Each structure stands twice: as C-alpha cells, then as structure tokens.
Amino acid sequence: MRMGVSKATIFLGFLYLSLFQSVLCRFVVEKNSLRVVSPDDIKGTYDSAIGNFGIPQYGGSLPGTVVYPKENRKGCRNFDDFGTSFKSKSGAMPTFVLVDRGDCFFALKVWNAQNAGAAAVLVADDVDERLITMDSPEADGSSAKYIENITIPSALIEKSFAEKLKKAVSSGEMVNVNLDWRESVPHPDDRVEYELWTSSNDECGFKCDMLMKYVKDFKGAAQILEKGGYTQFTPHYITWYCPQAFTVSKQCKSQCINHGRYCAPDPEQDFSSGYDGKDVVIENLRQLCVFKVANETKKPWVWWDYVTDFQIRCPMKEKKYNKECADGVIKSLGLDSRKIEKCMGDPNADEDNPVLKEEQDAQASLFIFL
Ligand SMILES: *[C@@H]1O[C@H](CO)[C@@H](O)[C@H](O)[C@H]1NC(C)=O
Ligand SMILES: *[C@@H]1O[C@H](CO)[C@@H](O)[C@H](O)[C@H]1NC(C)=O
Questions:
Q1: Which UniProt keywords are listed (predicted)?
Q2: Of 139, 276, 310, 354, which one is least surrounded by beta carbons within 10 A?
Q3: Shortest-distance ligand to the CA of residue 148
Q4: DSSP code of 54?
C-alpha cells in the first residue's frame, strides 16, 4: 500500500467476525469511484468504499438511478414485506438502492435489495468520521448461505454525501450516478490490490470450514487474475500478543511463539491435548514466508497452491498438521525450503520476528463494515 493514496476497504466473509478464525478480504481502491451525473448541483465524484461479496468485478462500470426507499430504510428486512420492488422497467436505468447503515449486516442489506431487483446498493454511513468502528457479533450460519449468492455491487458512502442524495431524491429529482471500478483501481494498468486475512487453523468448526471452502473456491479465479496481472494480492494472518505479566504462564507458552509476542487461540480450546495455538502461529508464519518467497520469484500465486495443498494433505484431524508434512508440500511445489526457514526465523528466540511484527502492525488498521 502506498502513502498518499486514499484507500477503501472491503471485507469478504465479515460474517466470521471472530478475528482469529475469519477470512477478511480487503480490496484497496482509490477514491472517486462514485460519480454523480445529475442533478447538476451535486454533480461530481465522491468517496466511496466499494464492497463486493464474492469475486470482484474488475474494470467494470455501472450507471444507475438512485432510489431511497420510503420504508425499510435500513434494508434489514425483506423488501417484499413492504411491497417494494426495485426492478427497473426495460430500457430504464438500473436501480441503485440507497439504504442507511445500522441494525444488521452490511451484506444482509445488499442481499435484501438484490432480491427486490436492485442493481447496486449504496449504504449511507451514519457517522461523520472516516473510520468505521469494529464490532463482533456472533457468526451465524444462516447468513453464510446468502453471502455467496450476492452478485450486485455495493458501496459505503459518507454521511454528508448520502444526505445530498436523499435531499435530491426526496425533492423528486432524477439522481443518476455511475459506479466505476475503472476509476477506482489504484493503478493505470487496471490492477486491483487486495489483502486477504486468513488462518491455517482447520479445526474450529463451521468458521474454519467456511474459510477453507472460501479459499478453495476463490483459488482458481485468484490465480488467473494474479497471473494476468489484474490483481496484486497479499495474504495476512492475525496474531495477538500475551500481556507481559503472563508470558511465562502455561496458556501463553502453549499459544505463543517468540516469548509471548505472537499467539493464536488453541484450536480445540484445550491446552492439554491436540494442537496448540503455537502450532497455528508457526504454520501461519510458514504460509506468510511461502508467500514472501513465492512473491520474490514473481510467482505469488503459488501461495494458493500451498495453502490448499496443505489443507488437503496436512489436516489436524489426521495429525499431520506439522513441519514434516508442510515440508513435503513445499518440496512438491518446487519452493526453496531454506529460504522459507530463514524467513521464519527462530520461534523460541526472545526477539521480534520481522514478518509477524509487520502483520501485527497491519492488523491495527483493520476495521469491519457492519
Ligand atoms: C444460492 O444459490 C444456489 C445456486 O443457485 C441455490 O441453490 C441456493 O438456494 C441459493 N441460496 C440462497 C440463500 O438463496
Ligand atoms: C510482492 O512483490 C511485488 C513486486 O514484485 C512487491 O511490490 C510487493 O510489495 C511484494 N509483496 C510483499 C508482501 O512482499
């Protein structure tokens, strides 16, 4: 990520909000992705954070007319219940539904609007700050079902801009906008940068299963896009640190490496049996190093092969979630294992690991749309 460029952040899979077990995907895009074409008095380009649940649509652009529903303004309920439809008549511009932020998942709003025929959704922020606060509701199996079926684009817009749109709509004006990904990509070569927050933990029940499925399903497209130069992705792994007073406790010892600096929760929530959080941190670190080494050789997409092969060949269930099995995968992919070991450093050393340190720093900027 470069300085001086404003970024918008999108999360895929924000349903699995428990940070350690979630996959979060951020697309780094520039400002000015939403243009108001008419009316004249609010014409111009506005900041927005384009959200897209599923595979992002690169290099596209979509014109539409903004509608602000009279009821169900937060979009948390089915629009059918209010007899509202956003289907545009043939020949008419597609409908962009403006909904207010709050009360339910961002994705549920988009899903409800999509079902009512919307072509895109604009979510009006309800606070004036730029930053969005983090929240962590319980993951919920029912929402996982619809998220994969969301096909329409969505964007979070600033409160002040939303108010201008509402005013124009309520005064009966035709508000035409254009959501443009071509303008939003940060590079003139149309390349989208995105970040994927993930974990190698494969034994946390539903969340881990969803995460693995997501990675598996997205792999093909991700590799094609990466090889084609359309994207530049960076995988990330979340760790936390043990408070200094506890670094010698049993809990920290089993969950952390580098003397309490980098920890992950115990996969089975049982400190005495099976794998420890420490094992997860080490494998996460290995995967980060696989990415670094693969990226240095200009083949970042090999990371996807590694993580999916590792999932298949080295599951915790079969007691193969270990270095030996990982080394087999590394070898089969022709990656330089010495370079990877060097990158991983010594997990027992009482010092910072530069790779994980960087991850913890990046983590500080994580926030979630809700
Ligand atoms: C999502 O799409 C699939 C395939 O079209 C369908 O079988 C499934 O019922 C859909 N899920 C929801 C929640 O609509
Ligand atoms: C991956 O490589 C590209 C250049 O090939 C570089 O710009 C990027 O920063 C690298 N990413 C990481 C995380 O090292």
A1: Calcium, EGF-like domain, Glycoprotein, Membrane, Receptor, Repeat, Signal, Transmembrane, Transmembrane helix
A2: 354
A3: 1
A4: S
Q: Which of 138, 156, 114, 152 is nearest to 10 (CA)?
A: 156
Give the residue numbers spanning the domain of 49: 27-180
Looking at residue 99, what is its pLDDT? 96
CATH number at residue 141: 3.50.30.30
Kindly give the number of the ligand 1 atom that is closest to the alpha carbon of 149: 1
Q: Report yes or no: 52 and 61 within 8 Å, Cβ to Cβ.
A: no
- Whether the per-residue pLDDT at 57 is higher than 60: the answer is no
* Same-domain pairing of 202 and 313: yes
The partner residues of 100 in beta bridges, in order of sequence, read 124
Q: Which residue has the tokens 């999932």?
A: 311
* Number of compact structural domains in the chain: 2
Q: Which atom of ligand 2 lies closest to the CA of 234?
A: 13
> Regarding predicted confidence, which is higher, 295 or 148?
295
Which amino acid makes up residue 213? K
Top-confidence residue, 294 or 61: 294
Q: Token pair for residue 273? A: 């049996």
Q: Using CA positions, which residue lies closest to atom 1 of ligand 2?
A: 295
Mean model confidence pLDDT for the chain: 77
Using the Cα atoms of residue 345, residue 351, residue 356 and residue 358 in order, give the sign of their dihedral. negative
- Together in a domain, 63 and 139: yes
Check pLDDT > 90 for residue 335. Answer: yes
pLDDT, mean of residues 52-59: 45
- Give the position, in ligand 2's atom list, of the atom nearest the Cα of 296: 2
**Which one-letter amino acid corresponds to residue 7?**
K
Question: Is the pLDDT score of 243 beyond 80?
Answer: no
pLDDT of residue 200: 85
- Angle of helix 323-332 relative to helix 302-313, nearest 10 degrees? 140
In a domain, 139, yes or no: yes
The amino acid at residue 143 is S
CA angle 10, 38, 168 (to 5 degrees): 85
* Residues with a CB atom less than 6 Å from ligand 2: 234, 292, 295, 298
Q: Is 331 in the pocket of ligand 1 (CB under 6 A)?
A: no
Q: Of all protein residues, whose CA lies closest to atom 5 belonging to ligand 1?
A: 149
**pLDDT tens digits, one per residue of 139-188:** 455 655 677 677 788 888 889 999 999 999 999 889 999 876 554 444 44
